[in-house]
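=== Structure Prediction Worksheet ===
Name of assembly: unnamed complex
Input type: mixed (protein and possibly other molecules)
Chain count: two
Listed entries:
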Amino acid sequence: MKSRLIAILAVLGLIIAACGGADEAAPEPEAAPAPQEAPGEEPAEEPDDGPPNFEGQTLRMIGAEGAAGRVLQIAIEEFEARTGATIQVAYIPTQDAINQQILSLGAGSADNDVSMIESGFLPGFIQGVEPLNDWIANDPDVDPSIYSQGMLNLFRALDGGDEIYALPFRVGGRIFIYNERLLNEAGYTEPPTTIEEVREIAEAVTGDGNYGYAGTLQQGNFLVTQWTPWLRSFGGDILDPAMQCAAFNDAAGQASLEWFVGLYRDGLMPPESIEFENDGLIREMQTGRVAMAVVFSGWLGPILDPETTQVEGEIRVGPNIPHGPGMSHGVTDLGGWGFAINRASENKELAWEFIKFLASEEVQEWLALEHGNAPTVQAVFASPDFEAVSPDAANQRSTFETGARQRPPVEEYGEIQESLARNISQALIGDITPQQALERAEQDVNAVLGGNC
Amino acid sequence: MTASDESNQSPSVDRTATAVATAKSDNGGGSFDPTAIHKGSRSSWFARTNRFGYLLIAAPMIMMIIVLVVPIVFNLYASTFSWRLFGREPVFVGLDNWITVLQDPRWRASLSRTAIFVVSTVTVQVVTGFWIAYILYKHLNRIGLLSVIFLLPMMISEVAAALTWRLIVSGSNSLLNWAIGFLGIEAQQWLGPSWAFITVVAVDAWQNVPFVVLIMFAAMQAMPTDVLEAAELDGASGFSKLRYILMPLLQPALLVVLLFRTIFAIRAFTTIWVLTGGGPGDRTAVIGIDIYRVAFSNFNVGMSAVLSMLMVVISLIIGIGYIRMLTREPLS
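=== Predicted Assembly ===
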């Protein structure tokens, strides 16, 4: 009895110590680093013109891991140094980051001050983020006309209204890249422009440890974004124009998936492509054993990172995504990341300063030139400096300008994507045929959309 | 009820009965006066003790109702709606979601995969853990520092462990392939369609075998040694000792291990999600993965509620089965 009493008292003591200790142990806000000048920035002459001081203030947010997260972190460190603010980011895998933010916003939570929005999932975010029009109108430093309007439109109201929900930070599209050395060694001096040529070159290159093509085939969002440019370049689409029914199970869709699955099943892609998300594909392209791939334009920077790449000077960008029969050109997916202010945030002023900073021309230029970010400011994209650091920038532009589309802006896109990923993945490993995959996904998607199909 | 069960009845019940009998006799064997229970000093002390006991358990009971009963009831309620978190309003559909889950080949396949995963991983964990514990018991009296080493996999967070394993097994140039290359074994695609399921079972087992080792080793140390010594004197073989002495003596501990590991395996998620995301082609999509996808990727509240309830029901059935076995006589 006595020992029990002692045990209870000990546990109570520990609990009290833990509760009391929490206050004592709570760290003081870290002393902010002294504001410093950004690379190449002139020192501010007047205090009023200098960067705003947010010393001791903290913003919280969820960030997507991977290449986008790495560039974001670089920008955050610069922002913290300039303003004295602290930005706390929980980096998690891309799809989880999107889902958790949507859930948190849906619950009206103030846990996060800023949202990192993937443009294809904007419908899920709209309910919980502030329209930025008033912020933009009241801030002379922000001019929305500097952005590529197609990129800015990715973050506009879905009903055709004027509301802008996020400032674009990192937007690009899927581009076709190739390893010029491997193509030359296989006897090809020009990149392919049709899907028949892609297959032909892939067959010629594959062998001796080299592969013709690689993709992000891990079951999930990256698998779907890998296939959809091909679907569209065959003349197909994900949903019908009314966004009520699946449109991918037509002749174009079936031909595109047959062709795409064939590349993997016939051994023209590395077998481990089935495990790749973005980082896996980036690493694979860096090794120089893969001839062709469709990648997000923002991945070019990491692929060409001089510290890790083995393919310096070998990677080129094709003039467009190769197209299928009956098409005159390929069609890419446009999409990317923008930043928004959460409605429930208690730090909206700081949040605005932060997203304004990320989307500013100065930061966009710096990140694009030095860290391979996919810029959103037109002037940066067109600058000779960008042409110098980004291979075939003109080809990237032409890819985006030739009928680029974005993902269907429907609230159910997560469910649509999940079904497509599951069924395409099963087709890739041979559990079902491509036709079965599209039929099953079509059933799922039509049920989800509830349309009269 | 056995004789030993009868003799093990709760003392408080006996004492209350005595108090009631006393009260009756105080009334001259006439009509029963319940208030008489409180008249004697002993009976009133017990009554006060019980009230205090109820008071003590009231707070945890309320907490349990809030965190356990309310969510389960709400889940049941949600399972009767076609309800997506965003967009259309919830629509009452009765048992439609349940029928869909039980009829749709996708969900049936998911439940079958979960069953195979649970049986595989728990078997590997229990057999491996038991033998490691037995070897330690036979050859080491105290495991001391070794216990820390054995516990390490269990101490590492599941995400960190899975990410580390992903680095070890991912790709044809993986560390594991490099290592087995020295043995002349061809490189394998450990997260590919042929191996992914086995890989996730192996990683899950790696992380949880220490739990089995610890419990079994502690149970072995608590065994009466004289029984084993007597068996040895009688010339019992190693297998006979294991089958007829060790196993019956260790049965309660074994059942506790099985209970915990089975329930944890049913709700496996983190390791699989990090290693494979449920792929390729749903090869590793157990029910925990599907619940996550349906709830947090598709935001389909109704369907995820059905899947969650199924997981609870399956865990409950298995748990009750184990607990019933635990309360029986040991193996004879």
